[in-house]
Amino acid sequence: MKHCLLLLALAAPALAQPSPGDWIVSDTDSAGGGLRAVAPGTGALSTVASFPFPMGVNFVAMHADGADLVAGLFQDRTSSTAPLSIIVATPGGVVATIVTGPPINAADLDQDGTWRFAVGGAGPWPRLLARLDPATGLLTTIVTMPAVANALAIDQDTGDPVLGTMNALGAQGDLLRVARGSLAISTIAAGLSTITGVDFEPATGTFAVTRAAAPQVVRVAPAGAVAPLATLASANAVHVDEPTGNLVVVTGGGTLHVVDPVGNVLTTYALGARSLTGVTTWGSRTIALSGSFTAGRAAAVQFHFPSSPLRTYVAALSLGLRPGLGLGDGRTIHLAVDPLLLISLGGLPGVTTGFAGMLDAGGRAGGTITLPPGFPPGVRIFVAAVALNPSLPLGLDTGSTVGFTSN
User: pLDDT tens digits for 215-264?
Assistant: First the structure.
C-alpha cells in the first residue's frame, strides 16, 4: 500500500505556540475537533489548532523536531464514502499534511526518524502497521495486523512497534509486538478489553496501557505480567511525561489526570465537555537515530532540547539500559554504569563525533556513531544526552534514551 501526501494550508488563525512542557490534548465532538495546550500546575487551557471537520481529532503526537505536532482527524463517514486521514504539523496551527486513503488510528515516532501508524479497520480498509517516510511522503505497509489497532508505541528497548487492539466485537483487547527484524507478530498480553492507549515507560521498560475495563490504567511487563495502576472511567489515552515519569491520562469525559508511577492520582483537570482522545508533551526532548549500525559504517544521531538553546550538552553510550543513573531529583538517565559509558562521555575517539558541544539556536545538535571494525552484531547499545539548563532541576535537561542493535 502506497499513498502520496498532499499539502494543504488550512484556514486557521495563527495562534501562540504552547510553552515547553505543556501537555497537548486532542479532542473531538460533533462540531469538529482540535488540539489544546494544558499548562501543568494550573490546568490553564488554550487552543493550538481547530479543525471544522465532523468527529474531530483522534490522536496527537510530537514530531521528531520537537516543535511540530502530528495528529489524525476522524472522517465523517455519514457524508463521504472516501475516508480521509489528516496528519497535521502545527507550529501555531497553520499547516496540515493530508494522507488520502486509509483511516489512521494511532501513531508513534520510530527510532529511525520515520513514523509508524496503526491503519484501517473501517469499511474496506485493511488492518495494517504502516510506515510514513517524511522525506518521500510515502505511506507503505509494514505488516497486516490480525485485529484493529487503537494504540501504538515504540518499545525503546528493542525498537519493536507495540500495538493495542480490539477484536471485531470490540470486547477483547490484546497487546501485540511486531518484531523489528522479522516482522513476526507475538502476543505480549491478551484479554485486556478494548485497548485505547499505550506508551513505553523508560524507567521500568514496561508499557502503560489504558483500556475499556476497570482498572482502566494498567502496567504490562514485556513478558506479559499485568499490574493495575488506576481506575479512571473512559480512559482514552496515556502518555509518559518525560521530565517526571508520571503518566498523563485523558478521558472521554473531558478530564486530564496525572498519575504517578505507582498509581496515585496526583492531579485532575476538568477541560470541558469534549471527549479527549490523545495527549503528548510539547517540546519533547528527542534523540533520533538513523542509518545502519554495522561495523565500519557511520550512523547519524540527532539531539533536540527545545528549552535549552545555545547551551552545552554531552551525550553518552552504554551497553545496558537499567538500573540507570539517578540524578538525585527523581529523574533517571537510563544508561548502565559500564566501561563504555565511562569512556564515551564527551565522545569516543574513532567511534563518535558531535557528542559534546553547544546546541544551536533551536536547541539541536547532531553527530555520528561509527562502530569499529569487528564489532559483533546483536549487541544492544543505548544513547542518552544531557544539556545544561539552570531553570530545570539540578540545572540539567535530560533527553530520552534510545537504543539500537548492531547488525
Answer: 999 999 999 999 999 999 999 999 998 667 899 999 999 999 999 999 99
The mean predicted confidence, pLDDT, of the chain is: 81
Q: Can you read off the three cell numbers belonging to residue 266?
A: 496526583
Spatial distance between the Cα atoms of 104 and 101, rounded to a whole number of angstroms:
9
* Fold topology of 2-281: Neuraminidase (2.120.10)
Burial of 343 (0-12, 13-18, 19+ CB in 10 A): middle
Cell 494522507 belongs to 99
**pLDDT (tens digit per residue) in 108-144:** 988 676 789 998 776 667 788 998 876 676 778 999 9
Domain positions in the chain? 2-281, 286-405
User: Distance (Å, rounded) from C-alpha 63 to C-alpha 78?
Assistant: 31
Topology at the third CATH level for domain 286-405: S-adenosyl-L-methionine-dependent methyltransferases (2.20.130)
C-alpha to C-alpha distances, 240 to 68, 169, 271, 286, 304, nearest whole angstrom? 18, 29, 19, 14, 18
**What are φ and ψ of residue 50, in 5° steps?**
-125, 145
Q: Is 385 helix (H, G, I), strand (E, B) or coil?
A: strand
Its pTM stands at: 0.80
Task: Report the relative pairing of strands 96-100 and 104-109 from DSSP bridges.
Answer: unpaired
**What distance in Å separates the CA atoms of residue 355 and residue 332, rounded to the nearest whole number?**
19
Contacts with 308 (C-beta within 8 Å, 6 or more apart), sequence order? 359, 363, 387, 388, 389, 397
Question: What DSSP string describes 19-50?
Answer: PTT-EEEEEEETTEEEEEEE-TTT--EEEEEE
Q: Write out the three cell numbers for 371.
A: 562502530
203 grid coordinates: 524507567
